Amino acid sequence: MDISARIRENRKKMGLTQEQVANLLGVSTPAVNKWEKGATYPDITLLPALARLFRTDLNTLLCFDEDLTQQEVAEFLNDLGQKIRDESIEEGFLMAMEKAKEYPNSGELLHSIALVLEGALLMSGRPEEEKESYLPKINELYERAAESDDPRVAEKANYMLASGCIARGQFEKAQEKLDLLPQWNALDKRTLQANLWIKEGKITQAAELLERKLLTSVQTNLSVCDQLAKIALMEGDEEAAAAVADCAKKECEAFGLWEYNGHIVALEVAVSRKDVRGSTAALKAMLEAIFTPWTPGSAGVFRHAAQHCADHPGAVGKAILPPLLAELENNPRYDFLRGDEEFQELIREYGGRCKRK
Questions:
Q1: Cα separations (Å) of 237 from 195, 225, 229, 243, 282?
Q2: pLDDT tens by residue, 297-352
Q3: Is the distance from CB of 131 to CB of 119 less than 8 angstroms?
Q4: For the chain, first and last CA: distance in Å?
Q5: pLDDT (tens digit, 9 = 90+) per residue, 74-119?
Q6: Do 305 and 212 touch, CB atoms closer than 8 A?
């Protein structure tokens, strides 16, 4: 609700006409009418008197304390995503920043907007120098969300800020943000909640909760494998790195996860070693997996969780193809593959499929 609607709502609640408000404040009736239509705004010197007249405070009158419900945030995020898909990232940023101005203290909104914009930028396939121009705005949103009174929102925002600082090489600031996060805690109420539901006979709810926990854990393990493989390569132990990559692939297979994830660590290892054949083999498997539909329900272990896992990796499917191809074509890490015919054939083949999808 903007200030024009707030003035109109409070006037009616007080049982006053526009003329009465105008007389009490020493302004014209058309002026009050324009305020309520949003055509103009009250002079800053009138705001305290206006707040006293409506028996409220300035924060409430100016909508600074107003927040959005989770449903309203979700609806806006859907609209924002649609705006980016139908028009452009530029238009999406404009839309997002206007909403952030309207609700400057809604930590959940600010954090969610930052996540959507960062994700859209990542998936855009734009050159790194173009992406850089948008990052300060995204970072500002995270910083504002980190000041939220809601500790849950502040924690999520500080996590993203720490991650961004690490990526940019701002290690001291990254440590400052990490120090604001709670220590690792082995206690997880999801297991206890599932036990309670099992005792109460709510077995479907228990299964769904445990499956979602397991899916998150497995995906975390894959991320850890990626980090361990990088460390092994830094230590010069290629055999250990290859073993970790093999573990990651086997875990994906064991839990029936999206095949794409099973080759990420192998690609990292092969590229770090400048292994042409290993790199092209991993890339070929990953690119083909993009066109292989996958949902949690397609794996027997996760048959209850499917309907609540719309954000699983397989859901993005073909949407990741353009940015992946742009990365392969533009990132210097893949320069050693430029002269390989099989690599070039993969780029041509999937570039064509990208245009046809």
A1: 43, 15, 9, 10, 20
A2: 555 788 887 655 544 444 455 678 888 898 898 889 999 999 999 999 999 999 88
A3: no
A4: 41
A5: 999 999 999 998 999 999 999 999 999 888 888 999 999 999 999 9
A6: yes
